[in-house]
Amino acid sequence: MTPLRRFASSPLRGDRARGPAKPVPRRVLALLVVATLLTGCASPTTGVGYYWQSVTGHLALMQAARPVEDWLADAQTPEALRRKLETARQIRAFASAELGLPDNASYHRYADLQRRAAVYNVVAAPEFSLTLQTWCFPVAGCVGYRGYFDEADAQAFAASLPKALEVAVYPVPAYSTLGWMNWAGGDPLLNTFIGYPEGELARLVFHELAHQVLYVKDDTTFNESFATAVERLGGARWLAQASEAARLEYARFDGRRHEFRALTRDTRQQLNALYAQTALDDVAKRQRKAQVMADFRSRYETLKQSWNGFAGYDPWVARANNAAFGAQAAYDELVPAFEALFEHEGQDFARFYDAVRALAEQPRSDRTAALRALLPIRVAASATPSRP
Questions:
Q1: 386 pLDDT more than 90
Q2: Where are the alpha helices (DSSP H) in the chain?
Q3: What 3 state SS string does 215-280 have?
Q4: pLDDT in tens, 58-94
């Protein structure tokens, strides 16, 4: 999944998918039967009920998807959506041909979910730490979030967490099934992100496909930093051959994001430094934390004045807390190290992926240390993880 990476979208929504529903594959039916037997009346926010909502939510998403070719051939498909789907088809071919990303069933279908997000993530962190609470799952291992297909379920679970935790719930435009569902049609393109600027659409597809190249259980920062590095490197290559209009559109979009990320990165560093001060008691930390957060919001308002009315980050800023900052950090922390590794491997994606796979075989502490050794001194100093 890609939390906190794309804060605002403008999906182009057509009519609901038309035509008869496809038969449910037998393996999916088996999943449904098992989930039904296990679940009973369990709550969808916890226990086996959580897995039930995951199975049924993803099944509904898959059933809503149709091949991109069908949408392009359908006279009722809006012209704006048709253009986006054609671009997405080109991006998908580029991903495999030029970036060495998996050539499989994913992103050859499209679904309009009739909602603003694919899933809604819940993250939580203590009052004086940016270290996220983790939850463990059979396939994904331990991760710093829980995802829900229904926003109300996400909010209900967030409300059930201990009051000592700071909690955030945010919409996620796309997620990866890590290649496990390619036999059933793969991960589809969605209305939740199809309307992104061309360069950002390419980056999202590259990011999610990167998760199918490699995924390490119990190491969210490694996984997301790797995928983010692939999206950045691949996005730059895509834009190099794209139209001038696409490059200009993306430059405006990405310029705001870089400015906002610089602000949030600086705020994270201030919070980490504050929380590490053992000489301060909780009352003093609480007061200084309030000052840091007030300064963050004031600086954001100043920054926003140069964006010609763009306010897409307002919801994130309004709910910003330790959990929100901690989730954002997972996507950024080791990206410069992976980019340095790509340069070390001669800017060759196949060699780069092999080098990352070799790192993944090492114990977590060893691979993290190896990546940090690739960082410039200034960047390495700023990437110090938060203390629990």
A1: no
A2: 26-39, 47-64, 68-73, 79-99, 151-160, 198-213, 220-240, 244-275, 282-304, 314-319, 322-330, 335-344, 349-360, 364-372, 377-382
A3: CCCCCHHHHHHHHHHHHHHHHHHHHHCCCHHHHHHHHHHHHHHHHHHHHHHHHHHHHHHHHCCCCC
A4: 999 999 999 999 999 999 999 999 999 999 999 999 9
* Residue 46 identity: T
Which residues is 146 bridged to in the sheet? 122
Residue carrying structure tokens 């088809």: 89
Residue 189: helix, strand or coil by DSSP? Answer: strand
Q: Count, in order, helices (H) and strands (E) of the chain.
A: 15, 8
What does the longest C-alpha to C-alpha distance in the chain come to? 68
For residue 305, the tally of other CB atoms under 10 A from its CB is 8
Q: Is 303 exposed, middle or buried (0-12, 13-18, 19+ CB in 10 A)?
A: middle
Give the integer Cα–Cα distance in Å for 298 and 318. Answer: 12
Give the span between the Cα atoms of 49 and 39, in whole angstroms.
5
- Give the range among 217-221, 255-259, 260-264 with minimum mean pLDDT: 217-221
Spatial contact of 7 and 316, defined as CB atoms under 8 Å apart = yes
| CA nearest neighbour of 319 among 121, 176, 149, 116 | 121
**Could you state, in order of their start, the residue ranges of all structural domains in the chain?**
246-382
H or E element in which residue 110 lies: strand 109-111
Paired with 185 in beta bridges are none
Res 138: pLDDT: 75
Averaged pLDDT, 313-337: 91
- The pLDDT confidence band at residue 3, using thresholds 50, 70 and 90, is very low
DSSP symbol at 157 = H
Contact residues for 347 (Cβ-Cβ < 8 A; gap 6+)? none
pLDDT average, residue stretch 193-206: 97
Residue 296: CB atoms within 10 A of its CB come to: 20
